[in-house]
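Quarterly update, task 2.4: pyridoxal-5'-phosphate-bound model.
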Amino acid sequence: MTPIQMVDLKKQYLHIKPDIDAAIQSVLDNCAFINGKPVQDFALHLSQYLGVKHVIPCANGTDALQIALMALGLQPGDEVITPSFTYIATTEVIALLRLKPVFVEVDQKTFCIDPGAIEKAITPKTKAIVPVHLYGQAANMEAIMDIAKKHDLFVVEDNAQAIGADYIFANGEKKKTGTIGTIGCTSFFPSKNLGCYGDGGAIFTDDDGLAAQLKMIANHGQRVKYYHDVVGCNSRLDTIQAAILDIKLKKLDEYIAARQKVAAYYNKAFAGHPNITTPSVAPFTTHVFHQYTLVLDGADRDGLHNFLAAANVPSMIYYPVPAHRQKMFASFGGDAYHLPVTDWLTERVISLPVHTEMEDEQLALITTKVLEFFKH
Ligand SMILES: *Cc1c(COP(=O)(O)O)cnc(C)c1O
């Protein structure tokens, strides 16, 4: 049995090594390290996969969120509603742009932003909502888009954890997550479901005008070389990373299926356990299991984490401190926020290893050890 890791990038690489090595070698042969042909090829292939008109590659997922918010013409002090229960990047870029993050609750079952909480947080200064498709399933986009329409708000989807997931509308229509709101953002960080071998990210939109704006902002605010219309930034996806991603994109559906198989194994092993709640999938979404996250109740969560570590089974707490309790946001209300579901989840979640290369023996050991912990 291979040692268990949260993600096994080495084993995944070895399965696709000839294709990856050839793709990297081809970039080296051409020396077009910046904006080479593989960048446009990958953007086109990803737009076809997602069914979205424009894919604008950029340097990482955090930049994708920042550039998306920069393109919306917001003014300092404008409010952006976002969950507190998320990775810090989602909320950090809001504050960085001198906008005001307004933290709201998530749904206790799906870990995604609660549409009812959004509606309650809206003020005349609210300009945008940033839902996060956390752990790999979609937030309730139909409800969120209805609220956005009613109050004339932008929606920027943080799709860093859910690329490839399907959103299923009430009328049966399906769309990929990240293609429903005004703008969608993703990350190609190596451990993400579609990950490269360094940093990378992308922005999606169906709007031609916004696409031009996003491209311009990511490229020093220029449309024509050396003529800079707006203050932008320098955010590019390396050609080598694009070449790698173009190969891995072809495997994405297979990778998602492998993750779903792991989740099904765990679900079965933990079904009906009095202390363990397995992930629930909302009826309007598929789940691509970027994380497989349990909620423990009436149990010592950190005790389980340590017990597993002693048996060489890694586990992670995503995330140990919610945004509204981070020091960086003290001036935005911080502890004055009352987010009991978020706090409750923060104390009880634990994520188990899930990746594309898991072995049956590994799954057997992980589930045995988790169940053993509760017998003490
Ligand atoms: C990974 C991640 C990001 C940021 O992506 P980077 O490429 O690391 O900048 C943003 N939001 C969420 C929810 C993420 O998981």
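Highlight for this quarter: The chain has two domains: 9-105+112-249, 252-373.
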